[in-house]
Structures are given as structure tokens and as C-alpha cells.
Design goal:
The chain is mainly alpha-helical. It folds into two domains: about 250 residues, no CATH class; about 60 residues, no CATH class. Helix content is about 75%, strand content about 5%. It is built from 14 helices and four strands. Strands 1-2 form a two-stranded antiparallel ribbon. Strands 3-4 form a two-stranded antiparallel ribbon. A hairpin with a 2-residue loop joins strand 1 and strand 2. Helix 7 packs across helix 11, helix 9 packs antiparallel against helix 10 and helix 9 packs antiparallel against helix 11. The longest helix is centred in the last third of the chain and has 34 residues. The protein is elongated.
Length: about 325
């Protein structure tokens, strides 16, 4: 919720950072339009060729279920990984990135993990789509099929929420795929209300595209031109909308987990190892603090030290241990 800065004649005024999400999204998209357009071309050209070839093969082989055409989900996913990396960086506010280098880095360095994501999403897409369509057509004869169609719709939404985080996490971290899948599932539920907001933004984009399709559907040439133009922007726009909604949560999760790992590693170290890592200034400061503790109070007093209550006698022992270490040097 944006904070109101001041009111002038009943009108709310906001700083850019405090504006409502949709306004900030549009502003950010406009300022990054050229980079998003370039990233979209890098994704669209190879993906369009792959999808076109597989669709053509599906048609000439009489594949009524279009299973061959849907294979483009697998083979286009590495290129979508490159697009996701670019849009994620732009959503973070990193406007100085080199689009080609960033795209290439994700395509080469993380192409295999996105290929794996494509292999997993392929059967989910096929089953979800055909199940929903089956229940829809059966509902015309059996009203109870609406229940199954609704359940299928809920399942599709859950998968979408997971995919929101799956691609962005895979592009943002070098950690293993187990970490990526586990935290994508976790964030899809833990941040559900924010995911619905991202979903509504995507629905708005789809509604605008559908309106354009309807208005140009009466003219074949106009319809073809419309889709040629819209595809120059749509994939990057969809990816940017998703990353704009989820990238902050992803960065927080990665930083939080990294902090826990560093804390556990530090806990596993011996006092001597911790002592070696301290700078001379830190060592002197710790020694002075412990010296003041030794000169005040009695041994049974509890003192707040390093974020917890510690008995004074324990801190005195720590002081003696440090003095012994100094003598041994």
C-alpha cells in the first residue's frame, strides 16, 4: 500500500517509490522498453523458428492433439531463461545491464536447468489443458462437470504460481534445482495474495490482447499484422510483469537462506578460528568490552552481550581465554 506524502486540494501525491504497484509497473516498463524489446527479439527469433517447425510437423503428421507442437515448451525454455534473466535484472532496477551479454550468460550457463524445467512443464501443460477442455465440453451434458472444471482451474492456478517463481529463481541463483523447486513451491503458497495480484495483471494484459484480436478478426490481413506486431512485445511484457511481482520476494529468500548458511558455518567454527578472522581493531574492541565487564558487578549478574543474556562469570572466563591466547602468540 503506497504511503501518502501530502495532500493538495484533496489530491494525493506520491513519490515514485511509493506509487501504487500498477503505476510503478507501467513507469518501469516504459523506461526499460528498448532493452525489453531487444531481449524479446533474442527470445522470439529462435523460439519462433522452433515453434513453427514443430507445429508444421504436427500438422503434416496428423497429430490432432498437437503433442509435437507443445514440444516447443521444452526446446524454447532455455531461450525463455535468457529472457527471464534480463527481465529479472530490469525489474530489480538494474538499468545498466548489457542485454545481449545477460541473455547469453543465462542461455549458456543455465540453459540445461531451464531445459529440465521445460521437460517437467510439458506433461503438466498437456494434462491441464486437455482436462480443462474435456470437463468444459462434458459440462454441457452433465452439470456436475463444472465442479471438476473448477478443480482443474484451481490446479492450473497453483501451477502458474509455482512457475512464477520457478523460472525467476532458476535464473537468479546458482543453487541446485532441488532448492529451486522447493522454494518455488513454498513461495507460491506463502506469497499467495501477492501472486494473485501478479495474476490479475497478467489477466489484464491477456484481456487487452484478446480485445485487439477481436477487433482485427474481421480482416485476415489486419489480424496477421496485429499478431506480428503484438509478438514483438508480448513475451517480454509477460516475463517483466511476473518478475516485477516476484523478484523482491525471491531476493529476500535467497539473502535469508545465505545468511542462515553463513551463521551455521560460523557456529561450527572453533573460538580460535573466529579469533583468527577478527581484525586487530575488532580484537581490541572485544578485549576492552570484556575488561569493563570484569571490573563491574558480581559473578552471578547477567549481562546482555552479543544479542543474549550471559552470566558475568562466563564472560570473565572468555576474557581469561583471550589473555591466554595473547600470551601464546
Amino acid at each position: 500500500m503506497a504511503k501518502k506524502l501530502k495532500t493538495t486540494k484533496g489530491k494525493k501525491q506520491y513519490s515514485f517509490e511509493q506509487r501504487p504497484g500498477m503505476i510503478k509497473l507501467c513507469k518501469s516498463y516504459g523506461s526499460n522498453f528498448k532493452k525489453l524489446f531487444c531481449a524479446n527479439l533474442l527470445f522470439l527469433i529462435p523460439s519462433g523458428i522452433i515453434a513453427g517447425v514443430l507445429t508444421w510437423l504436427s500438422i503434416i503428421t496428423g497429430d490432432n492433439l498437437m503433442l509435437l507442437a507443445f514440444l516447443s515448451i521444452i526446446f524454447c525454455m532455455p531461450f525463455f531463461g535468457g529472457l527471464t534473466k534480463v527481465t529479472a535484472e530490469l525489474a530489480r532496477g538494474n538499468r545498466d545491464i548489457n542485454v545481449f551479454e545477460t541473455f547469453k550468460e543465462a542461455l549458456i550457463g543455465k540453459g540445461l536447468r531451464f531445459l529440465l524445467i521445460g521437460v517437467i512443464l510439458y506433461p503438466f501443460t498437456i494434462v491441464s489443458l486437455y482436462s480443462f477442455l474435456l470437463y468444459y465440453y462434458m459440462s454441457k451434458e452433465m452439470i456436475t462437470m463444472y465442479l471438476f472444471m473448477g478443480l482443474c482451474g484451481i490446479f492450473i492456478v497453483i501451477i502458474l504460481f509455482i512457475v512464477f517463481y520457478l523460472c525467476s529463481l532458476a535464473a537468479s541463483t546458482d543453487k541446485g534445482m532441488k532448492y529451486v523447486f522447493k522454494n518455488s513451491f513454498y513461495l507460491s503458497f506463502y506469497k499467495a495474495r501477492y501472486n494473485y495480484r501478479t495474476l490479475l495483471r497478467l489477466v489484464l494484459v491477456i484481456a487487452i490482447v484478446a480485445l485487439g484480436e477481436y477487433l482485427t478478426s474481421f480482416n485476415l490481413v489486419g489480424n496477421i499484422v496485429y499478431w506480428c506486431v503484438i509478438l514483438l512485445f508480448l513475451p517480454a511484457l509477460v516475463s517483466f510483469v511476473i518478475n516485477f511481482g516476484v523478484i523482491d520476494f525471491i531476493d529476500r529468500k535467497i539473502n535469508y537462506d545465505s545468511g542462515i548458511k553463513r551463521g551455521l558455518e560460523k557456529m561450527a567454527q572453533s573460538p580460535e578460528e573466529i579469533e583468527k578472522q577478527r581484525t586487530p581493531e575488532e580484537t581490541q574492541r572485544v578485549a576492552e568490552n570484556l575488561q569493563r565487564i570484569a571490573e563491574s558487578g558480581n559473578d552471578d549478574d547477567y549481562i546482555f552481550h552479543n544479542g543474549k543474556m550471559v552470566k558475568r562469570s562466563v564472560l570473565i572466563k572468555e576474557l581469561e581465554r583471550q589473555e591466554n591466547l595473547e600470551d601464546g602468540k
